[in-house]
TrEMBL record:
<protein>
    <submittedName>
        <fullName>Uncharacterized protein</fullName>
    </submittedName>
</protein>
<keyword id="KW-0732">Signal</keyword>
<dbReference type="InterPro" id="IPR011042">
    <property type="entry name" value="6-blade_b-propeller_TolB-like"/>
</dbReference>
<feature type="signal peptide">
    <location>
        <begin position="1"/>
        <end position="25"/>
    </location>
</feature>
């Protein structure tokens, strides 16, 4: 079994079992029917109940103290501590009972990587702090990653769904506002946190899920945030640390409606110096540069949930098909960009229907230079052959919904896909022209476990917890994997 969830926590488990036994004892005590009790018998049973209740309270107090001592930070403590929270934490045990537990829902929406230091950050949504994974160096190499936090200012810490996606550049972490009323700007050397206020017009008509991702301009002086429910592009000036709104030119599209939600996702830099928003429900592609923002390409109609972000390879952006049955390709090697759609050849063993929704919501480039999309609601993996310009499916990954969103290429030539509702890590072999899929591990069954992640300087992969209680760490083999894939060469554990 490749999953190495090294369970200690034995003391904690035993305490919980004892606690449950005591509760069950109380539930049956005094419920037998028969002759009335004598006065001294009644007093004796009442005394036993009180003593049992006291023991139960004492054991539960120890359980709560043990649970609280395992938290990464006290800001993750949700009061009152409930048995459901403790039971969920029991599914995230580690070998040494490390105090890196993060209970709570929708804590982070994506991650960000600092290429200079190798640090990995969680973008705080409901979390009241910023998750930091710092590399620990010894004798010139990284031995492991140590979790820590940077606290958020109290005036915004309690806000829900604050930021979605982040960018690290020149020693600063920038996070894109989702429901937040400010852009997050963090000096990673000093841990100074700044909140850059949004333009006044945003406060007058503020919506949830305002922007979904963003990208930097070629000069690395500004971030342009992609409007999902917002009606404008948000520009973040990284030099002056100010924000402004950019109007979107839709004059060539009389059917376009900027008031609909879920318009564009992404924020992908093209080779032409522009940043592109991928049409999800919007009717056309969004193109942004330092001169402004405009829609380009064909009109696809509204409300179709077409594509969900994308990846740029060799100057062409390939958009992930959500409800669409084609891959959208934006060739930015020419100006204006050349836009086309590639049909998807579904293999014979597929059980999916043509109208399947939420098929693929992310992807990664394999060691062979092709793009691979893990199955979300569909049952198969999508492969985009860059040279042949063809799209096909392969493998079988199960029929459940929202299994994986996105993945990371590892040093063994395999892509490891980030489990959302999936109870396994999906491994996709991408070398030597032979594709094989493998399901690894046995993960908790609850929803939306991890979102986003990065490869560390130790060669391991780190997935950021959304509803999961800990960071998920994948240690792949140190050399290229061969096929058939082995069952024992990957280590999966909680940090």
């Amino acid at each position: 079994m490749p999953m190495l969830l090294l369970v200690s926590f034995y003391y904690f488990c035993n305490l919980l079992c004892l606690s449950v036994d005591v509760v069950e004892g109380f539930s049956t005590m005094g419920q037998k029917f028969g002759a009335p009790l004598k006065e001294d018998e009644a007093v004796s049973q009442l005394s036993s109940k009180k003593k049992g209740k006291k023991r139960q309270n004492e054991k539960w107090s120890i359980i709560k103290d043990t649970f609280q001592n395992l938290l990464l930070d006290e800001s993750f403590l949700l009061l009152p501590v409930r048995s459901t929270t403790v039971n969920a934490a029991m599914q995230y045990t580690t070998e040494a009972d490390t105090p890196h537990l993060m209970p709570g829902t929708h804590k982070h929406l994506g991650g960000a990587y600092d290429p200079e230091t190798g640090s990995i950050f969680g973008v705080p949504a409901n979390s009241k702090c910023i998750l930091c994974l710092q590399p620990v160096w010894q004798d010139g190499s990284v031995t492991h990653y140590q979790p820590s936090v940077i606290s958020l200012p109290p005036e915004i810490a309690d806000q829900k769904m604050k930021w979605l996606r982040g960018i690290v550049h020149n020693g600063y972490l920038w996070a894109i506002p989702s429901w937040a009323s400010a852009v997050l700007c963090v000096n990673l050397a000093t841990h100074q946190v700044e909140l850059l206020p949004l333009p006044e017009e945003v406060h007058e008509q503020q919506n949830p899920w305002q922007w979904h991702g963003g990208g930097m301009n070629p000069t690395k002086t500004a971030i342009y945030c992609i409007p999902s429910n917002a009606k404008h592009v948000l520009k973040v000036d990284m030099i002056t640390k100010t924000t402004s709104l950019v109007d979107i030119d839709i004059t060539a599209y009389p059917g376009m409606d900027l008031s609909i939600p879920n318009k564009w996702y992404g924020g992908i830099a093209g080779k032409d110096g522009c940043i592109y928003g991928i049409p999800y429900r919007a009717g056309a592609i969004l193109q942004i540069d330092d001169q402004g923002a405009r829609c380009v390409g064909p009109f696809y109609g509204l409300d179709r949930y077409n594509w969900h972000g994308g990846i740029c390879v060799d100057g062409s952006i390939y958009a992930h098909p959500s409800h669409a049955n084609t891959v959208l390709v934006i060739d930015t090697n020419v100006s204006p960009p050349h836009i086309k759609e590639l049909p998807i050849q579904v293999h014979d063993d597929s059980i999916d229907i043509t109208s399947q929704t939420y098929k693929w919501l992310g992807g990664a480039v394999g060691v062979d230079g092709n793009i691979y999309h893990p199955a979300c609601d569909t049952s198969v993996v999508l492969k985009i052959d860059i040279k042949a310009q063809t799209c096909s499916t392969f493998g079988f990954a199960g029929e459940s919904r929202n299994k994986w969103q996105g993945g990371l290429l590892a040093r063994d030539g395999c892509i490891y896909c980030i489990p959302a509702n999936g109870q396994h890590v999906l491994r996709i072999h991408t070398a030597n022209g032979r594709n094989e899929v493998q399901l690894l591990g046995d993960l908790p069954a609850h929803k939306d476990k991890w979102q986003g992640g990065s490869m560390g300087k130790d060669g391991c992969l780190y997935f950021i917890p959304e509803n999961g209680y800990r960071v998920l760490k994948i240690t792949p083999p140190g050399s290229m994997a061969s096929t058939p894939l082995r069952e024992d060469d990957v280590r999966i554990e909680f940090v």
